[in-house]
Amino acid sequence: MRRWGLSLQVAFTFIGTVVGAGFATGREVLQFFTRFGNWAAPMILVSTALFVWLGAKMMLTAAELRARSYEDLNRHLFGRRAGAWISHLMLVVLLGVNAVMLAGAGSLFSEHLNLSYQTGLILTMAACFMLLRKGMSAIITINTLVVPVMILFTAVLVFETLHGPGADRWMTLPMELSPWAAILSPLLYGAFNLSMSQAVLVPLGARIGDPVVLRRGAWIGGVGIGAMLLAGHMALSSRMPGVSQFDIPMGGIAREVGPWIHWIFVFLIFMEIFTTLVADIYGLSLQLQERVKIPLNALVVVVLLLCFAAGQFGFGPLLTTLYPIFGMLSLGWVMLMGKDRLRPEPPAPPEGFT
């Protein structure tokens, strides 16, 4: 029973790490899937398979290596010198992703709470700093609380959507873009999110160590991500093309369903943005601490300030520009991760894990 509890914690942390600003707001689902019309559902299945397979493999490899951070994994995959350069690139990419997360929170405050964009950035940064003082245990706890509620509420929103006009458009929406772009899109999406989740899943896999728990958690988490992708795509398709004008498309749909749905969903969107931001900044700060001997809390402040500066470009432009580029950069990492071979028996979990 304890193993099942740990597996669910791993699954919820996996989901919470991937379901960030772009996913929860609907912007990422629109960019990588919904705009490809009736091709989107098969593409989502491809991404789901990648999440299950490589999510498990990443955590099992981290457990085998007893990796302290994602740099240990990259050195294993690419060799010592190339791995160090890949990790340097990952630092820049993670910083860009964190800027997108923070900008997503700012857009949420400005579009739905009648507060300024800058207020949203500052309040989110303050909350992030306070939580990160608790370390990895706080990340696991907040995802265990938020992710099940987000899954349930997404199901409610999709149920409401499917009872309205355009409910079947996710199957009939025409694909008006290049088929090659459609084929590449789920690979870019999976590669990008898996390489970014290294920051959390590598130390998590090393900390837990139990291969049964990690495999089960990857299956539950990967399938959960796929189900949420499909649910978001179904809801967005019913409102296409008008919903694409919003920075936060899912918030616009929730507002149409009803005021109470809207306010609860806005809160949950913020919490999903927040959980991913917290997890990524934690992983980035750990990586920086291996290079510069500065206290972790001070590094967290520096990273947050850099994200605040980058966040001035705005959420929509940052996401649509940076994410496809980062996805292309991540394809090589995914190929090596897929080819890597594990030893037959990963070590037993460290003593004293709770």
Could you please describe the fold and organization of this structure?
- The chain has 354 residues and is mainly alpha-helical.
- It has helices at 2-18, 21-25, 27-32, 40-65, 70-78, 80-112, 117-132, 136-162, 169-172, 179-208, 211-237, 249-257, 259-289, 296-310, 315-339.
- It is globular.
- Helix content is 79%, strand content 0%.
Structural class: mainly alpha
| Unreliable sequence segments | 343-354
Helices and strands, in order, run as: HHHHHHHHHHHHHHH
Give the fraction of residues assigned to helices: over 70%
| Total helical elements | 15
Summarize the SSE layout with pairings.
Layout lengths: L1 H17 L2 H5 L1 H6 L7 H26 L4 H9 L1 H33 L4 H16 L3 H27 L6 H4 L6 H30 L2 H27 L11 H9 L1 H31 L6 H15 L4 H25 L15
Compact overview of the structure:
This protein is an all-alpha fold.
Features:
mainly alpha, 354 residues, globular, disordered C terminus
